[in-house]
Amino acid sequence: MMALRPFQRFNALFYKYITSSLCGCGNVYVTRSFSQRKIDLDYEVHCHPETNTQLTPVVISHALYGCKSDWSSIGKELNYITKRKVVCYDAVNHGCSSSHEDMAYKDMALDLVILLEKLNLPTVSCIGHRMGGKTLMTLALTQPERFEQVAIIDIAPSAEILIENTTKDLEKLANLQLYKFQCKEDLEAYLKEQQLDLRLMRSILFSIIQRNDKLNLTVNLANVRKNYQDVLAFPPFQPDVTFNGPSLFITGFQSLEKFLGDFPWVYKRFPSAKIQYLPELDRWLHLERPDKLLEIFGEFFMEREDTSNEKRTMSISG
């Protein structure tokens, strides 16, 4: 029998797990066809000489206005702390990865499947921040065998509310001409004049890098604007679809109120979930308090390693 390629396997599994959606004439199954797209995801691997290749690698997936370089320092330190190989990657329309007009989570999950196949990583643990968290949760619910542990930051497996002002702000930013600005301070002054949503403005400024006296944006804002509703959404799954492995959800004061309403969804899809509240958590804790995140991730991933060692010891002694 001819082996299925990654996108064919993913599509078959997605058909199996996707829920029926309610229509006027009753329940009908979503049978949208998925075609393979040619996306080249840029990535970096942290693997110091003492890395234990027997341990499950960790994959880090960034947020909507982020890129892999935001997580480079944490990835490097996490590699030293846990001795696990760590892979940070740029999602489609971000950093050095390819651009594409579609950013639905089933598409971005498929992009990751192909990257994991390319890197020969059949099983991984993962860290996902907001959009990256939704991508990883989509894949964990579709192909749970690919994940040993799942750590999600500041997001739940549910749809977010569309804020009209943010949509309008993204339309303003879609044609942003960075060459007109000499530095980030000039750009910040301009964005304030546009009366953008404060959180969006901070996100955009975080996604700007300065090289050779030029400002560069690490996210394709035009494609983000086109896909903004898809980014806020979360794929609907059948009621019994879960990821039963160890999972950790981290939230803070900025998102606590919404997250409290999402608790049922977290436990419904991730029944083994632990939820950790950090009052100092803003949307960029990985940049503002990387030490705190490293402490949490180190304990989470080492806990799994200790459990595995206990099982091996019991097996040997038995």
UniProtKB/TrEMBL annotation:
EC number, as in UniProt: 3.1.1.116
Gene3D superfamilies xrefs: alpha/beta hydrolase
Domain AB hydrolase-1, first and last residues per copy: 57-216
Alphabetized InterPro entries for the sequence: AB_hydrolase_1 (IPR000073), AB_hydrolase_fold (IPR029058)
Pfam families, per database record: Abhydrolase_1
Keywords linked to the UniProt accession: Hydrolase
Reaction it catalyzes: 1-octadecanoyl-2-(5Z,8Z,11Z,14Z-eicosatetraenoyl)-sn-glycerol + H2O = 2-(5Z,8Z,11Z,14Z-eicosatetraenoyl)-glycerol + octadecanoate + H(+); 1,2-didecanoylglycerol + H2O = decanoylglycerol + decanoate + H(+); 1-octadecanoyl-2-(4Z,7Z,10Z,13Z,16Z,19Z-docosahexaenoyl)-sn-glycerol + H2O = 2-(4Z,7Z,10Z,13Z,16Z,19Z-docosahexaenoyl)-glycerol + octadecanoate + H(+); a 1,2-diacyl-sn-glycerol + H2O = a 2-acylglycerol + a fatty acid + H(+)
GO cellular component assignments: mitochondrion
GO MF annotation terms: carboxylic ester hydrolase activity
Record flagged with keyword Disulfide bond: no
Family membership noted in the UniProt record: Belongs to the AB hydrolase superfamily.
Name recorded for this polypeptide: sn-1-specific diacylglycerol lipase ABHD11
Species per Swiss-Prot/TrEMBL record: Clytia hemisphaerica
